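Quick log. Single chain, no ligands specified.
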Amino acid sequence: MRPPTAGKRGGLLKRNIWILSFFVCCITSPVAAAPWLKTLDQATQASQKERRPILVEVYAPWCGFCRQMRREIYDAPGFEAKSAGYTLLSLDGEKEIEFSKRYRIEGFPTVLFLDHNGVEISRLEGYADARRFYGALQSAFKERLMQDQLTDAVEKSPDGFASNYELGNYFARAHLHDQARTYFWRAYRSSDVVNSLQRERVLYNIGVLSMRLEEYAMSASIFDAFVRNAETETTDVIYARYWRAVSLLKTDSGKTEKQDQIIEDLKFAERRLPFPGDRKEARRLLEGLR
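-> predicted structure:
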């Protein structure tokens, strides 16, 4: 076979250089950074259509283990592909105080696995190596459709106490208050035989949700029924009296027509509420009536 001419050798050389450059580029180019969102609202909105679970990195700037997990896991090769089914959220737990309270963040790093409505599936607390992290990632992904599973249970037992209570509790954890109240009412009215304390606890939850929906006349009425039905004084009863007073203060008729009851409830709450901050607030409300 005749050797290639100089012109052909030059063309082959250029072609080989181009191919080599292409492969070097492919090998050395960094993987595109995963799109980490910055608020829970952004993450839940992005997750709704495909019901994608949410991976939350909760960190603190001073946290050495947080930086180590960032290097070893989030910025390492393979993370983008393995987390492709998730919406990613990164939060400074010291700045996002309301988030940290809602999810009871007690230290850093914390990794939360949430469903598309922001309901917690599972968590990792403290440093996790790649093996532990990816094991949790895969397990949480399998549990991502909690809402569908609970809805199926209600469809199978539409008047059941347990099925409606569990779905109501799910929506309450998702901060979807109206939906939660609907299913709690269904549980409360269920003809299933359940412990009276369980049924009354559902009524208490309905009162709290009514307050969050700013339906204060309803919440006052519900807490009133809860207190009257209570057989013993529990923490729920103490808070129900406090919330009854707060609800009445939010209504024009309550402030004028039931002021004596409001004062009595707030005096009781000032003495009996378990947390100092709540007792202080009860005292402040009471002083405003004097």
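The chain has a mean pLDDT of 90.
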